[in-house]
Structure formats: C-alpha cells, structure tokens
Design brief:
293 residues; 7-stranded mixed beta sheet; 9 helices; binds S-adenosylmethionine
C-alpha cells in the first residue's frame, strides 16, 4: 500500500491486492477470536437481519463476508429452500468460513473468492443483500453500489453496517490515540484507499444508499461493546485481528511498541466492569430497497 505518491489514488488492482493482503495477514486471528466477535457483534447482526425482512426460501448475498458473518446465521434463517452466497477477497477467511459452515451442518451456503465490484450480474438476482463492516473497503463505492442494486430483485433490500467515527467509538479511538503518539494516524490508510473508518460519520452510509438509487432508506446507530477477560487479552485480540493497527504497530521501533502496548493496556483497564473489559463501540447501519418498476 505504501508505494503511492501522497494524495494520488492507487490503481484499482493495487487497492484490491492491498486490501486482500491486509485481511490475509489477520485471518488466523479471526479464527482464534471468532467466539468473542460473535458475542460483540450480535446486536449488529440482529439489526441487519431485521432490516432485510428475511423469509424462508430467500436467496441472499453477503458481501465481504469474512469468516462467515452474517452469512451463517442467515443461512439458518432462510432454511434448506433458501440459499446464501458470501463473497470475500481473502482465501484464508473463506477457508475458515467453510470450516464453520461444516461444523454447523449448513449446506445452503457457499463461499466465493473475489472482489464484490467484479461480481457478474449472472450470479443474481438476490432477494436480499447484506454487508457487515465490509462495504467501507470497496475500492469504488459508486460502481460497487450500482452493481449491488442491479443484483437485487425489484423490492429486494440491501442492509449494511460500518463503524462509527472515533469520537463516538472508544473501540477505535483507544488504539488510534496510542498510535497517534508516534505516527500520523490521519494518513492511515493512505489517501485514496478504503479503510475501516470510511463512511463513519453520521448520515454518510445512508447518503451512499440514497445516491445509488435505493428507496425507502432507513438508518440507525447500534451500540455494542467489545470485550476480553483482562486488558492484556484485549490488546492481543486487537493486534491479532485489526490489520491497520497491526501494520502500524509493526512499523514502530521496539521501544515505541512497548510504550504503545503499555498505554493501550492502561487505557482499556479503565473499562474493567466487574472482571470483564467492556469497551463500548458504535456501528452505523443503513438499508434500502431496489425500486419496483
Ligand atoms: C472487517 S471484515 C468483515 C467480515 C465480516 N463481514 C464480519 O462482519 O465478520 C472485512 C472483510 O471484507 C473483505 N473485503 C474487503 N474488500 C472487499 C472487496 N472489495 N470484495 C470482497 N471482499 C472484500 C475482507 O477480505 C474482509 O474479510
């Protein structure tokens, strides 16, 4: 990712490759921390499912589905007459998602490797499309949203979540504050490349839906918390699962790494809630429907 002149957008292929490499780097961490993530993200998963108004028998597309969320719970909901396709860039994420589907004995879900922007129209149409914390990584939001609209049946719904901005989101603010002691976090990721905090401001995600031509656009914020049993475990979880933090941390000198780690541990220790660390977070959700006719 680092080879572009400041302010010059990276080419499409380079952006996709860089995003894929970032998620490959942490995919095994996602396998290890999956039960923690499942609990953390439950309120968002439920809100997305509710926004999709799912029924048994529906065909659903999950974009940037990672290790299988929310594709797997949705596969349970649409039942054996329904079908779910989850698309992701990272082969290791897909391998983990496939393992989880097998463990859950789900046969109506398939995991495909590729970029959402390159989806062929022939994979559709879908009754519903969902994306949890992934739409913000699309290299070309305009083209990506237009393609998703085309992939829906008329009246079909798309619902997505992104993270809220650091000001309202301690889960992101705390590690950023620690890194900001030594690097310019506003340059992370470099300009012109997608990242975890794209569309994080109020109304931005709903605006993207409206601009793309979705109607009946609704949006809401969901409060959740990420947790661990102690501060040390919390910091390890972030290091093993958050690509931006990990890359920036690995680029620091040994002494700075030690200071970031100590500062991070001290900051999350303030969120000890009866022997569990609970760090609050905010997700922004939006959903809309493809116009009928
Ligand atoms: C933050 S993870 C979210 C994974 C999952 N949806 C969840 O909520 O657990 C973002 C995922 O989006 C995938 N991704 C990013 N850009 C993508 C793109 N353009 N096409 C397909 N997948 C993409 C990454 O590989 C990564 O697995």
């Amino acid at each position: 990712m680092g080879g572009n002149a400041p302010g010059k957008p990276a080419s499409d292929a380079l952006v996709v490759e860089a995003v894929r490499d970032e998620w490959e780097m942490v995919a095994e961490g996602w396998r290890r921390w999956e039960p923690f993530f499942a609990a953390t993200t439950l309120p968002v998963t439920l809100a997305l499912i509710s926004a999709l108004r799912l029924r048994p028998g529906m065909r659903v597309l999950d974009i940037g589905g990672g290790i299988g969320d929310p594709a797997l719970p949705i596969a349970s909901m649409v039942g054996s007459d329904g079908h779910v396709i989850s698309v992701d860039l990272s082969p290791t994420m897909i391998e983990i998602a496939t393992d989880r589907a097998r463990a859950l004995d789900l046969h109506n879900v398939e995991f495909c490797m590729g970029a959402v922007e390159d989806l062929e129209i022939s994979v559709g149409p879908f009754d519903a499309i969902v994306s949890r914390f992934a739409i913000n990584f699309l290299r070309d939001m305009h083209t990506g949203m237009a393609r998703l609209l085309d992939l829906l049946v008329p009246g079909g719904r798309f619902a997505a979540s992104v993270w809220g901005s650091p000001e309202v989101n301690p889960m992101f603010r705390i590690p950023r504050e620690q890194l900001a002691r030594f690097i310019d976090v506003r340059r992370q990721p470099p300009r012109g490349t997608p990242g975890p905090l794209w569309l994080s401001k109020p109304g931005e995600l709903a605006g993207v839906f409206a601009q793309a031509g979705f109607e009946d656009v609704e949006s809401t914020d969901v409060t959740l918390y990420s947790f661990a049993r102690n501060p040390d475990e919390y910091v390890r979880m972030v290091y093993e699962t958050a690509p931006m933090f990990r890359r920036a941390f690995n680029g620091l000198s040994g002494d700075r790494q030690r200071r970031v780690r100590e500062g991070f541990i001290e900051a999350v220790a303030a969120y000890d809630d009866g022997g569990v660390i609970r760090v609050p977070a905010v997700a922004r959700l939006a959903g809309g429907a493809r116009p009928v006719g």
